[in-house]
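Teaching note: in complex prediction, the entire set of molecules is handled at once rather than each chain in isolation. The prompt given to students was simply: 'Predict the structure of this complex.' The entities are:
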Amino acid sequence: MSELITIEVNGKAYDVRPGQMLIEATDNLGIEVPRFCYHKHLSIAANCRMCLVEVEKMGKPLPACATPVAAGMKVWTQSEKAVDAQQAMMEFLLINHPLDCPICDQGGECELQDQAMTYGKVQSRYQEVKRVVLDPDIGPLIETEMTRCIQCTRCVRFGTEIAGIRELGGIGRGDRMAITTYVEQALQSELSGNIIDVCPVGALTAKPSRYTARAWEMIAHATVAAHDSVGSNIEVHTFDNKIVRVVPRENDTINQCWISDRDRFSYEGLNSSERVLKPLIKRDGEWQTVSWQEALAHTHELLTQLKPEQSTGLASANATLEELYLFQKVLQGLGVSQIEHRLRQVDAQATQVLPAVTWLGLPIEQISEQKLIILIGSDVRHEQPMLNHRIHLAQRLGAQVFALNMRQVAFNYPVEQLAVAPAQLSSLLQSVISGLSEQGLALPNDGSTLELIQRHDTQNWVQGLLAALAQAQGKVLVLLGNSAQEHPYYADLATLAQLLAQQLSGHLGFIPPQANSVGADWVTTLAPQDEVGKAVELNSELDTVVLLNVEPEYDTANPYLTLSRLRQAKQVIAITSFMSPALRDYATVILPCTPWAETSGTYVNAEGTWQFARAVTEPKGEARPAWKILRVIGHQLSVPECEYVNIEQISFELRRLVDKHPLTPPTIQPVTTLRISNESGLERIGEVQAYRVDNVVRRASALQALVPETKAHIHPNTATHLALMPDTLVTVRQGEASLSLPVWWDESLPENTVWIAGGTEASAQLGEAWGRIELRAGGKT
Amino acid sequence: MTSPVLKRKSDLLTEHERHEIEHWLKRYPPEQKRSAVLAALRAVMHTDGYLSTAKMDAVADYLSLPPIAVYEVANFYSMYELDPQAAAKYSISICTNVSCMLCGSDQIVEHIEAKLGVKIGERTPDRKFFLKNEEECLAACASAPMMQVNHVYYTNLTPEKVDEILDGLE
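The expected output is the structure of the full assembly:
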């Protein structure tokens, strides 16, 4: 830490850190300096000139955002010279700004409006014609009104520096310069919504909430987002008991001041017409709306007949900690031990070797301090945009990023990536480890007994890794992504990832897929030890299935099998917020629960931080929080200790338990033999599409407009071999399941793989997300 | 089905254009490919007479730049034409800034418009001449009025001299 230096601002002396810009110093000191283009997380542009201040011995006023502090510097932010400059700049910026504040969504929370009031003159001398800029359509999320733009270029810099894809730019020059995409297209960034927040004027506003309410009519509720596994801190703005929009709430250790588009726009799903508003019972194949009393009595009757060994509970890992805890408690009270929330995991061995809680392994903030990051089976950019942002940050600070994947993932920063077909991922990892041990990186004891396959294609990658390791100063992180966790050989991959992390003396972490994955994992550690790790077997003899906000056609690893088993089950009790055609088909009772935002509860994020999200709106219809439903069911069935009066009571009980079950660095019981895949033929890649991950997002209309049409992606060579032209129909077959899909040539895939995104309408009709698949030219007959 | 290889956007660039870009790329550090964007666009202008979006995308792909970075440059400099209607064998810019105006550039404009039968901003049907919209001062005030035909300056113009120049162009 270097010595502080003394500067004088408005006649008062302050000690400040050298090397920073004047505006940073004044911000820290709480001295207000107006600005438009300056943003603390973006590079300095100094093009709006709004932050001009007077500095001693300087002829002209200087921009505070681009003037470094110097010892003995004397600054006046409100002197005649400074005020004169600020007023002149304000008048200049308003020359072409329209006076449409009364119909502008930004009105009332506009930096331009506020600063015009504080720093502007009463009247403008400009009387000529104002310019008009045409608005490009940049997709379903962001509305453009570019006549209002003051060319601060924050959105352009955000694209380059944070989003990692430059999509907006300044076209033209002088007074004709305009911010646009030039070629009209929807923004591709998964963080694009943040340009709404960085825009100081009403040029970029949220499209889904356009003209819904004025800023001062809304009520802001501080809460936590429930889609990404980082638990981004957000503010939900409501009007008339309805969510109007979601904006980030600053939290430097979690989401800084950004949020992903998924967390920002998924609230739309809460108002879906598919919301279940009243309890429903199926009688003689007909659905009947019933009272809660009747529905719960009926549920009680069904559950008393339940055969525990043949019953199972499936819960969404987006449910709150309290819900998951009660769900487990009630089902275990009934003797049911098969309770699962990792519905996309298929490797039975994984439950034996993996730690009970698979979490990030280090604080989110520390990702950006790493110098070498290795991703295994991860499209982290779309899985967890905010974790990806941290990796991007690390990369910008000099880290090198490597990836072993099952397709060439489009990262938004440079990554050394190797991609092989799923069946070969394990051998690729083995070859990397043996390559490193040949180069002198010792294998830990438990790895020395493993037979490691060697391949030729990893040599350069390993050399690159070694070079990066030499500069990593021990700051190494190995991350297992969602695709690795869904892989049929997850246990092997995790064992190998741990070996690799040990070889490189680095951390090992997991990228949790859902908002409360870590919490849901943690809840399972509270169950009696002998019942942990019992894999859910969906055999044909299923008796009772209890679902908690799960849509098996989208949320499971094998939709076709799960659906057919559910149809065969004797009874399916669904505690859910949303109706679906499949649910009508297989369910016996539907108990409407309130989704996120209408229910309070705790979420445990990727790094293990507990965050309590309070309900922000009233429950819709007769929907009730799932913990209340479960409490009544438990009480009726005389499950001990289910007498909770309020949610805080459950939270408190869990809080007490957390000390007895703290998070420890994830450690894997290594497998002793590695499985060798004898797969030949085509393999499916079935990672879930980013906006199809849970039942709320799937109903958020603006985000759904960005989900591409599902196609069978294949490598051009494989396509040529099978004589399949792009956009011709092909019949996709997985066992009994089959479907017609258009073909798409995709060079990012390894040969002999077929990428069909999971969580989609199409994949709902198919089998294993990762497994054998057949293709036949021509549509289904 | 013969070639399974998907086309890259940069495949659109001609042999000559690639050669030209490579020539300029040699002058800059390898991680500063962006520096060659002006030269690359100039090479495309030479072959096509204007910059199509597809060709700008090709340049972006070739230089590993985001396409918007190329659009920005192309839109900034008035020497780059973005309208296919501006593609002609000879692009004529008549200076009408203060010095030229005082020395009679308006007459020159009138004369050329009448001679070619097109207005400023238009192209002759045979695609031989394009009358470029008013340029800012072309920095030849001492020899006003003047015009620029492609890369050549013609100074001290009179209607007769203009006739001679334009008639002399192939």
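Point out the following to students. Chain A touches chain B at residues 165-173, 181-183, 716-717, 719-720, 723, 725, 745, 747 (CB under 8 Å). Chain A is about 25% helix and 20% strand.
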